[in-house]
Design brief:
Oligomer: single chain
Number of domains: 1
Helix content: 25-40%
Shape: globular
Largest sheet: 8 strands, mixed
Distance between the termini: 39 Å
Structural class: alpha/beta
Strand content: 25-35%
Number of helices: 6
Radius of gyration: 18 Å
CATH topology: Rossmann fold
CATH class: Alpha Beta
């Protein structure tokens, strides 16, 4: 059994449910899908950032008073799982200008059904950084596990990885956290189950196709 405290689900506010209602609607235009998905993505990234270590920082305000605040205490890096994960990059860059980004491309083999690593390009000092791993969909967990393995081999400690995700299936969460109990996951929704074709219920369809306008 995995550590449920490692899963940080966004508060299911009326506003968040309204945003989900728009992007889950099969009749949503691409323009609406992108705009309202981005609003949820921003909430996910803010929540993920809040899990990072901070340290005290005192500043002087314009009236000469002191404010005891905080600042990020670690070096940060974003890594997107191509292609759908790239949808989350613009919001992260807007929050953290100049942030270093890595890329991982994983594709499922048509015969073995296993994930194959086709490409990865990471900052050379990624082992010294905390990583926000960006992947909107977590279904069976195969691709996410492969991406995490790439980061671990690059020297990133498991506890320094935060998996930022839009929708997660229970089976994918279980696989992920049983294999990597120190990992933390931020998601906007834990779905009911998977279909035989590994689509989530109630789901959203193919996120990448809907976001980038390549749905047939």
């Amino acid at each position: 059994m995995f550590n449920a405290s490692a899963v940080h689900v966004l508060p299911q506010t009326n506003q968040l449910r309204a945003l989900h209602s728009i992007i889950r609607d099969k009749s949503a235009s691409q323009e609406d899908f992108v705009f309202y998905s981005n609003r949820i993505i921003r909430q996910l990234l803010e929540t993920g950032m809040n899990l990072l270590p901070f340290q005290p920082r005192q500043v002087t305000t314009p009236i000469g008073a002191s404010y005891d605040g905080l600042q990020l205490a670690v070096k940060l890096c974003g890594v997107s799982v191509i292609r759908a994960g790239e949808s989350m990059e613009p919001e992260l860059r807007a929050m953290y200008p100049g942030l270093r980004m890595g890329k991982i491309l994983i594709q499922r083999d048509k015969e073995t059904k296993l994930p194959d690593l086709l490409y990865s390009h990471l900052p050379p000092d990624i082992g010294e950084r905390h990583v926000l791993l960006l992947e909107p969909m977590l279904a069976t967990g195969g691709s996410a596990l492969a991406a995490i393995d790439v980061l671990l081999k690059a020297g990133v400690p498991e506890q320094h990885i935060i998996f930022v995700n839009l929708l997660a299936a229970p089976v994918g969460l279980r696989r992920l956290l049983e294999a990597h109990p120190k990992l933390r996951v931020v998601t906007a929704s834990v779905e009911q189950e998977l279909t035989e074709q590994a689509y989530m219920i109630p789901g959203i369809g193919d996120f990448g196709d809907r976001y980038f306008g390549t749905a047939r």
